Amino acid sequence: MSKYLTAPVKSSSLPKGIPYIIGNEAAERFSFYGMRSILFVYMTTYLMQPGGLLDTFTDQEAKSWTHLFVASAYFFPLMGALLSDAWWGKYRTIITLSLAYCAGHACLAFMETFGDTRAWLFTGLVLIAIGSGGIKPCVSAHVGDQFGQSNGHLLSKVFGWFYFSINFGAFVSGLLTPWLLEARAGEYVHPFIETLVGEKAQGEILFGPHWAFGLPGVLMALATLVFWMGRHKFIHIQPPAKASVYFKQTFSKEGMQAIGRISIIFAFIILFWCLFDQIGTTWLLQAKQLDRILPEWIPLVGGKEMLAAQVASVFNPLFILLLIPVFNYWIYPALDKIFPLTPLRKIGLGLFGSSLAFAMVAIIQMAVDAGGEPHVGWQILACLLLTGAEVMVSITGLEFAYTQAPRHMKSFILALFLFTVSLGNFLTAMVTKILTDSQGQAKLSLAHELWFWSVFILIGAIAYVPVAMRYKAKEYLQEEKA
Question: What is the pTM of this model?
């Protein structure tokens, strides 16, 4: 007999384990997005061997490697889902792979101390990809497992707050980690932190890579601790006694029908991720060319220059935090009065919105190429539109994947949903390689590349409409314990 609860208890209230999952997710996402927000800048500007020799990548090389890393991080959910659903269960899988995740952060934090920096970098990225990817579908499915029929009506809002926690962690890390990497002595904060960093010459880096990569590692260790503390509050859905039973169920007629049915929709979500994750690469390259001085009227930071790496990494999660309640309580109810707003229609609107966002940054880039220096506020406005598309595609897709998955396939179907991120980034990396010459430089202008992606997703959105109209939904929620 298990020492944990193995099925939801009949209740109309919020499950007791949810706060631990939300807290874990906020800290874990701080660690992932904090590291990711500085990865491209570190690879192109600061990567150094222990002897002091600068050993950076070109912009195109770093862009390709960054997208391949993200693709890997969202490939390993398939491994985590199989471990969880066939052998270990979600809780054990999350705890075990979180340790590999922590080890990966440690590799990055100790880069440039000894050995080959690039070897430490890629070793750390592999471990982080395995850890973050492996736990991702399990955590998402673990949220849904806490609910039964009696409180299933709360699932949509809780998935919204789950996504809120992801972006709260991403927002804080987007502010802090780029600053830890690039802040220099002489800035107004230095006198307060001199005891930490010691005396620094004017213009010298205050913290640098060890701090910038080390802090996300500390937050990942905290995330693991918080999750462990909630073990007696969680509903632990048990895997089958034999793995063969799981595989027989998963690849049964019902299982294959579910995979085939959902994969048709997932194919279009791949196109969205091709565009979205470029806010940390292509959009960052554009941000370097924009006027990033903040208006004087903004309290505390008015008149200061934003770091290029902070623009998308700060405003995307900030807009998520603001837009989730706006969409849930105002935009969705208003649209629902005009036409029935199904999950598939939300996803379709998001695809069209992402095309418009890339058209906006393409126009901004045309102004740059014409000799202008547009203010970064225009890119922030495009980021607002792209974030609205993310709310409609990603959050809705997460809930859609869980509810459309048979009960014994929750983690596996959520892994397939996350695999769309992997395939999207892989496709972006491959296109980037095709558009890179033998010297590591881009063959197309940035404006032309941005127009390409805008038209690409627009064609996909138009093709999505008749497919979504023919889709037949079928929902599955966990059965309750009487």
Answer: 0.84
